[in-house]
Design brief:
Elements (H helix, E strand, L loop, with lengths): L1 H11 L15 H21 L5 E5 L6 H12 L3 E3 H10 L3 H10 L7 H18 L4 E4 L5 H10 L4 E6 L2 H10 E4 L5 E3 L3 E3 L8 E3 L12 E2 L6 H14 L1 H8 L4 E5 L4 H11 L14
Parallel strand pairs: 1-3, 1-4, 2-3, 4-10
Antiparallel strand pairs: 5-6, 5-9, 7-8
Helix pairs in contact: 1-6, 1-7, 4-5, 4-6
Length: 285
């Protein structure tokens, strides 16, 4: 962890090499095989007591990266590091930096590489002090430059790219709510969309709060339709090339979410060649 942190900081101030990825796509069966091999390597390292997994979650804002990454982190006993949470923690801190950050976030813009890298570096240093082994990154890398920095300092085993239809993404983001008292996350959207090309309907039920939280729900300031659409546009423009970066290296597993968590979770585990000892089936945002 210390080596990763130091290298990220040094790379942040230096110009990086140009992207060396081939433009040729890796066939789907090869990507699935790579994903299964990565999952096996993670379990083998876990049994050996060494580094467990070093995975990355990609996907549009609101797709559910945090939900699935946090579940996998509990299963695999590695920390879930969400750069979105790092940014929100920084926003909550007093001072001029938080005000500058708020201006960027509230207009749906991507936070600069320098800021994200510094926040991540600090988090990795704190994890090292706690004795953490491995990680699941959520929200990083978002740009080719970030991917190159990460590629240069650590060996990412697997990159899981979550995909969801855009109309469902928009509804999910606009339905997100948080309890101002307990901090719980909920979603009031009930998504029921006709299947594409004769496929099955997509149904994602709401995750409603308990009675004691109903009157205390708040909406994130950046969860407006205008800002959400801008975030999706920015993602497609700047972050989709990151998918190609990892696809060319045989590390990308593309997973189309078929519905809500109860339907998607077991299928994701199957794609990762994992078994959930807890058999979790509860709903989440």
């Amino acid at each position: 962890m210390a080596a990763i942190s130091r290298a990220i900081r040094s790379c942040a101030a230096a110009s990086r090499r140009s992207m060396a990825a081939s433009s040729k796509e890796v066939p789907a069966d090869v990507a699935r095989a790579a994903a299964a091999a990565a999952a096996r390597r993670g379990r083998e390292r876990d049994r050996e007591g060494g580094r467990r997994v070093q995975w990355v979650f990609l996907g549009c804002p609101g797709v559910g990266k945090g939900t699935y990454a946090s579940r996998l982190s509990r299963m695999l006993r590695v920390p879930h590091i969400a750069t979105g949470d790092l940014v929100r923690d920084a926003l909550a801190s007093p001072g001029p930096f938080s005000k500058q950050l708020a201006e960027i976030v509230n207009h749906g813009k991507l936070v600069s590489d320098e800021v994200i890298i510094n926040l991540l570096s600090k988090r990795l240093e704190e994890g090292e002090e706690k004795g953490e082994l491995g990680f699941i990154l959520d929200g990083f890398p978002r740009t080719i430059r970030q991917a190159e920095i990460l590629e240069g300092v650590t060996d990412i085993d697997l990159v899981i790219n979550l995909k969801l239809r855009e109309e469902a993404l928009l509804a999910k983001c606009l339905g997100r709510r948080m309890c101002s008292q307990c901090g719980g996350n909920f979603n009031v959207a009930s998504i029921d969309i006709e299947g594409e090309n004769g496929g099955p309907r997509m149904y994602m039920p709401p995750l409603l709060p308990p009675p004691q939280c109903e009157s205390k729900l708040i909406t994130r300031p950046d969860d407006t339709e205008e800002v959400v659409k801008e975030r999706l546009r920015v993602y497609h423009d700047l972050s989709e090339p990151v998918e190609e970066f990892y696809r060319a290296r045989g590390k990308l597993l593309e997973f189309n979410l078929p519905g809500g968590l109860p339907e998607s979770w077991p299928k994701l585990l199957q794609a990762l060649n994992l078994e959930d000892p807890g058999k979790e089936r509860s709903a989440a945002v």
